[in-house]
Amino acid sequence: MAVREYRERIDIAQLTNDDLYKRYRVNHATLAYIIAQLDAALAPNTDRSHSLSTGYKVLITLRYLATGVIQLNTGDLHSVAQSSVSRAVSQTLDELSSQNVVRRHIRFPTTIESLNRNKQGFFHIARFPNVIGVIDGTHVQIQAPSIDEPMYVNRMGYHSINTQVMFLKIVKYVTK
């Protein structure tokens, strides 16, 4: 039976805020806040087999979302298997949704007044009229397709599909 070899993982504390932001799109304070929100649900039940801490699960998820690279690359960077990346991302995103952490920080306009405030804010920032919200996208890396292969090469030089995801809760208002 082969002996398992465990590689040393990234020490978050060693990263500066600039390095942390470049790699994960958050600073230390934001990372600490996210970890605190999710720790009760994501903390491992045991320290056996080098289980992933809440902080590491959050880092893996942030890196995966920030870069859009395949899970294998994210796993290589963090010294974990692709299957561990998959589980960490799923668990972290499920907890962010189920604990309403996302709803506390991402809000869509719900009144005419908030719609108008958003329009004014976006116009003030970029002189772009009638904008009430924005979404973002990411490139999900894929294997080169056999049909129309050049159509799937992105500006970074690898094959991907450009995706956009937005979750909305539609609320119906009744006026008196």
Largest sheet: 2 strands, antiparallel
The mean pLDDT is 81
Return Rg in Å.
20 Å
Proportion in helices: 40-55%
Distance between the termini: 73 Å
| Annotation, overall tally of beta strands | 2
**Strands of the largest sheet, in order across it?**
1-2
String of helices and strands: HHHHHHHEE
Walk me through what this model shows.
This protein has two domains: 12-102, no CATH class; 108-164, no CATH class. Helix content is 47%, strand content 6%. The chain has seven helices and two strands; from the N terminus they run H-H-H-H-H-H-H-E-E. The chain has helices at 17-24, 28-42, 54-67, 71-78, 82-98, 101-105, 112-126, and strands spanning 137-141, 160-164. Strands 1-2 form a two-stranded antiparallel ribbon. The longest helix has 17 residues, at 82-98. Mean pLDDT is 81; it is low at 166-172.
Ordered list of secondary-structure elements with their pairings:
Layout: H1 17-24, H2 28-42, H3 54-67, H4 71-78, H5 82-98, H6 101-105, H7 112-126, E1 137-141, E2 160-164
Antiparallel strand pairs: 1-2
Helix pairs in contact: 2-3, 3-4, 3-5, 4-5
